[in-house]
Backbone:
């Protein structure tokens, strides 16, 4: 069952991609990733505000190619992406992913700040 869901903030829709608390369970991340792509691709071009939550989830080298492919396949539908829980070593991987995909990501430690950034014009 998909954990990710649409939420509302500042009268705007945000697609909250919930990859949190999956620790080292990359299979759970892969399954969620497949499901969120279907949702995002069903939306109009450049319309989706995405908040991806990776708090308490380890992103290993096995997931990088999948995250890269998912980012490429949905990039035409995404207007902005904010990411939670990417710090330290994970941040280095994320910066690499940003360079590979060309999809700009903004990193936050605070969920409220991420939502504010997503919904500002």
Residues:
């Amino acid at each position: 069952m998909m954990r990710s869901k649409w939420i509302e903030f500042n009268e705007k829709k945000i697609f909250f991609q919930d990859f949190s608390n999956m620790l080292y369970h990359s299979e759970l991340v892969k399954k969620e990733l497949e499901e969120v792509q279907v949702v995002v691709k069903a939306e109009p071009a450049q319309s989706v505000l995405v908040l991806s939550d990776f708090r308490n989830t380890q992103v290993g080298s096995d997931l990088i190619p999948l995250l890269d492919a998912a980012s490429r396949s949905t990039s035409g539908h995404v207007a902005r992406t904010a990411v939670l829980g990417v710090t330290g070593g994970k941040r280095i991987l994320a910066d690499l992913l940003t360079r590979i995909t060309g999809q700009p990501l903004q990193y936050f430690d605070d969920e409220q700040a991420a939502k504010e950034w997503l919904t500002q014009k």
About this structure: The two ends are 33 Å apart (CA to CA).
